[in-house]
From TrEMBL:
Any one GO cellular component localisation term in the record: plasma membrane
Membrane topology: Multi-pass membrane protein
Pfam families on file: MMPL
Protein name: Unannotated protein
Keywords, alphabetical: Cell membrane, Membrane, Transmembrane, Transmembrane helix
Extent of Basic and acidic residues compositional bias: 684-694
Chain residue ranges for the region called Disordered: 684-703
Protein's organism: freshwater metagenome
Primary location recorded for the protein, binned into one broad class: membrane
SSD domain: residues covered: 221-331, 542-670
Amino acid sequence: MKKLLALPAGRRAKWIVVAVWVAALVIFSALQFPTKFEDVQKNDSASFLPSNAESTKALTAVKTIQGEETVAIVAVYYRDGGLTPADKLLIAENRKELNSLDLADTTPFARAVPSENGNAALLVANITTNGDANTILKPVDKVRSIVSDPSGGMEVKVTGSAGFSADAIKIFEGINGTLLFAAVALVFFLLALIYRSPLFLWIPLLTVIFAEFASRSIGYLLTEVGVTINGQSSSIMSILVLGAGTDYALLLVSRYREELRRHDDKHLAAANAAAAAGPAIIASAVTVMLALFCLTLAEVNGTAGLGPLGALGVGVAMVAMLTLLPALLAITGRRAFWPFIPRVGDLGADAAHGKWRRWGEWIGKRPRAIWIVTALLLVVMSLGLLNFSTGLTQGNSFRGEVESVQGQALLATSFPAGENAPTDIIVPDKAKAKAVAAAVAAVPGVAAVRPAGVGPPGVQLAATLKYSPYATESYALIPKIRTAAKQAGGQQVLVGGPTAIERDLREASTRDTKLIIPIVLLVVLLVLIVLLRAFTAPVLLILTVILSFAASLGVSAVVYDVIFGFPGSDPSLPLFTFVFLVALGIDYNIFLMARVREETLKYGTERGMIRGLAVTGGVITSAGIVLAGTFAVLGTLPLIFLTELGFAIAFGVLVDTFIVRSTLVPALVLDIGKKVWWPSKLAHEGEPGEHVPEAEPDVEPAA
């Protein structure tokens, strides 16, 4: 393996590696794979539903009855104190103008529906959609350009399920460019601080950008085999590539600098660095990829799609850092570090000196007291989980003002709040349709039930809810409506529509969390057992990462509520946070403990722990800051879920970097001693220095 890892740094191989990467990116560009990757993303909630969800079956039945899938576009006209005759004339003129337009796949707008209090009126039409974003965006934008915000004191907003979808699509369409620019700018800034070289920072940055381009290109091919991808999952993949890729680069470059202080030959230094750091990078990447692949077990298609997409991103980042980066290092050599060029014989940061060495020695004086106090601190931080709320819904998920939400608020002042997105009820037995309608209408919280269509699957009813269709109160009504409908019409009755879709998604997310978290823990534990060839150490590392996750999510829940004032969190947030924090957090423990094991073979557990901390402390801390920073960039996006996810992971990575990896893990290892390697031979051999094997020979670079 070491010879294979050293191959890209060879005197001739380095040019071949660079040429292969450049050729691949040229081919991807010519085939327009990155652009196609953007075009195939699906950002509507219905595309995420599991096939066995009742909402999915209801959606299929509605399509059959209507002959197509439609979404409602609703223009809300409102004047406090009552609509004037001039307002009503304008509404009529708007309707006439809208119906004279060639709005493809849009039904004519019906006569305005006035409210009982006279303050508002609605113009409603249906848009036929086939999943293509433009079938919704173009009609909504055209209608808004005509009716929204007229002068004269009347408020007009365009909402409905089409309005909500259009606003979400616009945000997701702009996410990738904004996110990529912000993340690359941040990585550039952090690399400049870390390396303090105007030249060298471009080497890892260029490698990361190559990896990002390649991952998006290959990601398009995943959609061709049926993987569901949305703007949210593609954004997270970009962050994973940039964050994890930069982490791997920092680890490899740190080892490269060590080797440049030992060898004059840049090829030998690059080869040795790749051979020494490569196994830890591979173990880290494989751990993250396996954890992400566990997401494919999710019922929610969007969550399941993130699994292979995220794993792809991490895998491409790993390959780039083990091939392209060593090749570039071998090409540029030590002069690229100017003005801080590492020379042969320089002391640098080694295992016998530095602040991390002193920190390890301080922990070694009273390790038990330190790990107990640190663990208690994390437990106290975890108490914030008592404040965790799942009050975030599609209706309150935007940061800032969007027109669909404003329109929903106007509508709710004069109509039942669920008027713009009714709940669909499919009754197979036409004879029981009236009984079902009466039973559903009797459910507290249902404003009205009306016929909406008849077809081969049965009768379609539309139930208008008193609450916003995207409010938790409405989600709570769905089980009651289903019970009433099935009691009156039989178990074959289906309840769907926007509210039921969101409710089923939330239920599936909760189920996914309960299923996947234990599986991820087991997978990561097995990887650690194989890597460290021990059982005690992997169990300890897993426990510390779980504690770090609980503390991070606990503090985050308090921050969301008290500082940000967010309405709550999405039910899927704990799952995403857990997978990323466990998978990425274990990275740093892998980097640390792999080096500790290497040092333990020579110096024993106590000295090996301190020496491992001394040589990895700086690079792992830098990597943690970079990864936290890249995830924090998610906070620049106008969606509360992504802001919360970015904060939770960024904070969790910092907790893991500065508290767990630098203090808790070393204290535990120093307190337990060589038994931490049980049942391997290291747990039984003499301590320290009784067994000092010969140093491993340098790896000669390939010709």
